[in-house]
Amino acid sequence: MAGLSFAEEGGLENSTENCGRSSAPASKPAPGRKAAAKLPEAGIQATAEKVLRSFNTWAFKREQPSDPQLMLRFIADAVAGQEPIPFVLYWGKGPRSDVGAPEIQCLDFLGAMSSRLQAAYAPGAVLTLIFTDTHAELNGHAKQDFQRYFAAVKAVATQRGIETCVLGSLVKTAGHLATVAPIEETVSSETLSLLLASAQKWYHGSGTAQEGALAYLRMNLIEQRVVEWAFPRSIFVTFNGSDLRGLFPRQLPIFYMYSLRRGFGVKPWFLPSESASANCAHQGHQPSPDAS
């Protein structure tokens, strides 16, 4: 499993321009723009706490964040520079190659969280979707299918002011950071069991479901470090629960969020095109079927 294959981006290649480290909020104002007045330390902390309260509510979160104090520190750093609060999340590929009602409802739900935050803090938030092309390729999706799907999601996201980039390109750009980590470092037997159950449902690549689950795990252990490098001061959002914490960036605070609305946790790309109905709401607290 040491040699992992990463997809070429083709038409989505420009999704990584100005993404990650290159698009991190600047410490100096853009040309022709005046720097914001520096807040006193007490004001920074009070504003950061207000920002955290604005989105860290049960209207959006499915459980408590992994590290609220680290999250507060990242928010305070952005507030000190009067910069948007950066959020980043994986966006995967399911059976469909079209954008349907679930994707639109999910993006609007993310937008609602961003609007709630902006009401408390004028610079607002910057949200970035990371398209997991590497996972889609591993799971046996045709390249043209996942490229078509991600391009369609990008178009809808861009209309809503949400940024995008491609995970495979981030991995390549990271260079030497994209190395395989020992599985024994972080992953529990419970996590392995969850990934195997997921692979048995969604993996259609070569080899067995167990081989697919292990390859997927090794990918995530690479990619969590790449995301930390590309988005070093961002809050990592996931529609998964904390039972898969070992797959997410270790150095970033994790915000466990509902996907389409409060009480609903199924990822939009796994739902039928028009399926955002209440008859699926009971699935909201079940383990999600894939880490991306």
Task: Give the arrangement of secondary structure elements.
Blueprint: H1 41-55, H2 68-80, E1 85-91, H3 101-120, E2 125-131, H4 133-138, H5 143-159, E3 163-166, H6 167-174, H7 189-202, H8 209-230, E4 235-238, E5 254-256
Parallel strand pairs: 1-2, 1-4, 2-3, 4-5
Concise synopsis of the structure shown:
With 292 residues, the protein is α/β, with parallel strands linked by helices. The chain has a single domain (42-285), classed as HUPs (Rossmann fold).
Radius of gyration: 19 Å
Question: CATH superfamily, called what?
Answer: HUPs
CATH architectural grouping: 3-Layer(aba) Sandwich
- Tally of domains: 1
User: How would you name the oligomeric state of the polypeptide chains in this document?
Assistant: single chain
Order of helices and strands: HHEHEHHEHHHEE
Per the CATH scheme, the topology name is Rossmann fold
Give the overall form. Answer: globular
What structural class results from the helix and strand content? alpha/beta
Helix content: 25-40%
Uncertain residue ranges: 1-11, 13-18, 22-36, 276-289
- The count of helical stretches stands at 8
Provide the β-strand percentage band.
5-15%
Tally of extended strands?
5
How would you characterize this protein structure?
The protein is an alpha/beta fold and 292 residues long. The chain has one domain: Rossmann fold. The chain has eight helices and five strands. The chain has a five-stranded parallel beta sheet. Helix 3 links the parallel strand 1 (85-91) and strand 2. Helix 1 runs antiparallel to helix 3. The longest helix is centred in the C-terminal third of the chain and has 22 residues, at 209-230. The chain is globular and about 60 Å long.
